[in-house]
Amino acid sequence: MNYRLLDYFPGIDTFLSMDPTHALIRLFLILLGFLFIYLAYKDILDPLIILPMGIGLCMVNAGIMWMPGLVEGTTKMSSMFLDPMVQTAEEHINAIQIYFLQPVYALTFSNGLIACLVFLGIGVITDLDFLIASPALSLLLAVAAELGSILTFPIAVGMGFNYREAAAVAVIGGADGPMVLFTSLYLAKNLFVPITIVAYLYLSLVYAGYPLMIKFLVPKHMRAVEMDPLKIAKVPRGEKLAFCVLAGTVLCLLFPVAAPLFVCFFLGVALKEGNVPRLIKVSDEVILNGATLFLGFTLGCLLSVDVVVDPKMFKLILLGFIALFLSGLGGLIGGLIAYKISGGKINPLIGIAAVSCVPTTAKVAHKCAHEVNKKCFILPYAMGPNVAGVITTAIIAACYCSIISKLP
Amino acid sequence: MYSMGFALKIGLLIYLLTFLISLMVVGIIVLIRKASRLGTQKN
C-alpha cells in the first residue's frame, strides 16, 4: 500500500494539486471570509447577512476535497457543502444524500422560496402608516429612487450582457436583496450567485456609503429640516388591511410572474394589521431570521473559485455600484424637489429612504438628519418612501420579468 | 446583437409603467381612505 501523507489531508492536497492561479484565488476567498467576519463583528457591514456569509465563504473554500464525479470512475474537486451544478432528478437525489446544504439549496434557492420567506418577514415588520397617510409623496419619491434600476439596464447591455442578464443586474438598483435573488433566478440563473452576492455586499455597504453621498449632495441647512412625527395622521388598522388586500390582488393580477413575492409581502402586512400575534411572532422571529441565516450562509458557500474567476464578476461589481449610486442620486433629487415644492417643510433626506432596503436607508436618512439637528426625528416620515420603495422595486422586477423574458 | 439604445427604450417604458402603476396604487389608497371616512361618518 502506497499512501502519501497528503492523502490524510485532502484539503491541503487539493490546494497543492490546483492550478496556482486558482489556488491563490481560493486563498484570497478564505481571507475574504475572515475580512467579512471582522467587518460584521465591527458592525461596518450588516452582521445579519455578512457574518454567516463570511463563515460559509472561508470554510467552504478551505474544505475542498476529491469527490466522485458525475461520470463513473472520475473524480472532481468539491466540498461536502453543496453542488449547484446538478441538473437531472437523479443527480438531485444523489446530491441530497451527499451534500448537507443541498436540501436547502434545492428546495429554497432554485425556486426562489427563500426570497419569498424573507419578504414575508419584511411584510410583518413593515409600518404602512406614513405610506397610507401620504401615498403620493411616498410613491413619487420611490419612483425617483428607481433611477438606478432603469439606467443600469442599458449600461449593462453596453458592457456586453444580454437583455436577461442586464435586467437581473439592474434590479440591484432597487436595493432589495430578495428581489434581486428572485429576478436573477428567473432571468439569469447562470449569474444568480455572483449577482446576489454583489447585491448583498453593496446593500451591507449602504449604511456606510449613503451618508457620504448625502454629505456631498445635500447642504447642511436642508438636512436639518425638522418634521414633527406627531403630525402623521393615525391610520386605522382596517384601512391598512384593506390596502394590502386590494393592492396585492391588483398587482398579482397585473404581474402573475412576481405574484409569489407580492403575496408573501402582503401576507406579512396582513398578519401584522390583522393582529394575529402568534403568526406575527413566528414570521418575524422564526421565518425571517431563519431565512436570513440560510440565505447568508448558503450564498457564502456558493462563492467558490469558479464564480470569482468568471470575467463577468468584475463587471457585476462595477454595475452594482453604478445601480445603487444612481438610485441614491435619484432619491435625493426627488427629495430635493419635494423640499422645494413644499417650501422647505419636507426634509430632502427622506428621498434616499425611498431606495427600499427596509429599514436601512430610512435609518441612514434619520441618522444623517439627527447628526446636524438633534431635534430632527424623521424616521417615521422616512418609513413611508422606504416601504413604497419595496412596492416600486417589486413592480420594476415584475416588469423586467414579464417584458424581458419575451425578448430573444 | 444587443442594442443599448433599444435597452434604454425598454428601460424608459418600464419606468413609465412603474410610474403609472404607482399612481394606481395611490388611487387605491385614496379610495380606501375615502370609503373609510364615509363609513365613519355614517356610524
Distance between the termini of chain A: 58 Å
N-to-C span of chain B:
64 Å
Shape of chain A: globular
- The percent range for strand residues of chain B is under 5%
**SS content category of chain B:** mainly alpha
Instruction: Flag low-confidence runs of chain A.
Output: none
Summarize the structure.
Chain A contains 20 helices and two strands. By secondary structure, chain A is mainly alpha-helical. In chain A, strand 1 (65-68) and strand 2 form a beta hairpin.
Plain-language structure description:
The complex is a heterodimer of chains A (408) and B (43). Helix content of chain A is 70%, strand content 2%. Chain A is mainly alpha-helical and 408 residues long. In chain A, helix 9 (147-158) packs antiparallel against helix 18 (312-341). Chain B has one helix and no strands. Chain B has one helix at residues 4-42. The mean pLDDT of chain B is 90. Chain A binds chain B through residues 131-132, 135-136, 139-140, 142-143, 146, 150-151, 153-158, 161-163, 166, 170, 236, 238-239, 242-243, 246-247, 250-251, 254, 388, 391-392, 395-396, 399-400, 403-404, 407, and chain B through 2-5, 7-8, 10-15, 17-19, 21-26, 28-30, 32-33, 35-36.
